[in-house]
Design a protein that fits this description.
Elements lengths: L9 H6 L7 E4 L3 E5 L7 E7 L6 H7 L1 H17 L5 E4 L15 E5 L9
Antiparallel strand pairs: 1-2, 2-3, 3-5, 4-5
Helix pairs in contact: 2-3
The structure holds adenosine monophosphate (AMP) and zinc ion.
Protein name: Histidine triad nucleotide-binding protein
Organism: Streptomyces hyderabadensis
Pfam families: HIT
């Protein structure tokens, strides 16, 4: 069922504390932790604690939770003192999604080119 923890999901395991992560923020509904393979000086992932497979599913199945995730991206940027930053949701393998639990990348701390590759 939408939102239920998945046994084979890496990010559900991070939420459950079964896999270590450098957690920088936590709310009742979200967790933010440093990406293990950072692409910028600040590279933090914000995830809903509940399992939704991607941003589209999250917005459709739990719009309030999608708003919580977005609000937390701003909180992360504030904590990191980022004036400019990029929020990315890779949706689908063709766009580079590799973990099938919705997550926002918050990237900053260096100049970011546009368009992205
Ligand atoms: P995506 O490619 O958009 O699905 O993003 C998945 C992200 O998760 C990648 O940037 C990975 O570096 C990151 N990642 C994978 N495993 C871990 C982990 N154990 N802890 C933190 N970040 C991870
Ligand atoms: Zn999950």
């Amino acid at each position: 069922m939408a939102g239920e923890a998945q046994d084979d999901c890496l990010f559900c395991k991070i939420v459950a504390g079964q896999i270590p992560a450098t957690i920088v923020r936590e709310t009742e509904t979200t967790v933010a932790f440093r990406d293990i393979n950072p692409q910028a000086p600040t590279h933090i992932l914000v995830i809903p604690k509940a399992h939704h497979q991607d941003a589209a599913a999250l917005a459709a199945e739990a719009p309030q939770l999608a708003a919580d995730v977005l609000r937390e991206t701003q909180a992360v940027a504030d904590d990191e003192k980022l004036e400019s930053y990029r929020t990315v949701f890779n949706t689908g393998s063709g766009a580079g999604q590799t973990v099938w639990h919705a997550h926002a990348h918050v990237l900053g701390g260096r100049g970011l080119e546009w368009p992205p590759g």
